[in-house]
């Protein structure tokens, strides 16, 4: 009988110790606050909605879609984010910028956005070039209200044409 009582007392003691060790302590007043309260913003506040245009599945038209990106004030970084989105598939859309084409830089001066792209732009198929020249300007003009003209350079050199289309005068806002 003594062994049973001793064993019972040990079990009760052990369960009390486990319960006490597993309990969470309440923070003292003002010691911790949720991360969003410290910054005064929610995670959604750092995101902005943008418009991107991607190709339809047969490459004959562009389709307007909405996407979210981090809030970016810098023109080059924002353009880089948009360019990346144009390389992705949408729910029912195809990328409008081929994966091989890279954006080297973007600079905005006096309403003219100059996009320096990789030489791979010159090897686009006619369908890829058509989608690129429809979707990219539409995306730029919807997301950069100050842009009036888009000009292209290829690896830092003025572009006369991309693959087949003359872009020497730039693309003006409609």
UniProtKB/TrEMBL annotation:
Residues 22-36 have a biased composition (Low complexity). Residues 79-163 form the GerMN domain. The keyword Heme does not apply. Keywords: Signal. PROSITE patterns: PROKAR_LIPOPROTEIN (PS51257). Residues 1-20 form the signal peptide. Residues 22-47 are annotated as: Disordered. This is GerMN domain-containing protein. It comes from Tumebacillus avium.
């Amino acid at each position: 009988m003594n062994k049973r009582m001793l064993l019972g007392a040990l079990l009760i003691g052990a369960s009390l110790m486990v319960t006490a060790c597993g309990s969470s302590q309440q923070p003292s007043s003002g010691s911790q606050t949720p991360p969003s309260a410290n910054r005064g913003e929610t995670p959604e506040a750092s995101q902005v909605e943008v418009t991107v245009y991607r190709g339809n599945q047969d490459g004959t038209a562009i389709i307007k879609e909405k996407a979210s990106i981090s809030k970016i004030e810098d023109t080059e970084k924002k353009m880089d984010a948009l360019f990346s989105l144009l390389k992705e598939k949408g729910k029912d859309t195809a990328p409008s910028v081929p994966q091989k084409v890279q954006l080297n830089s973007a600079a905005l001066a006096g309403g003219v956005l100059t996009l320096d792209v990789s030489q791979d732009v010159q090897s686009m198929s006619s369908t890829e070039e058509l989608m690129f020249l429809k979707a990219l300007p539409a995306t730029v003009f919807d997301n950069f209200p100050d842009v009036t003209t888009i000009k292209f350079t290829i690896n830092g050199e003025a572009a006369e044409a991309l693959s087949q289309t003359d872009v020497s005068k730039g693309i003006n806002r409609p």
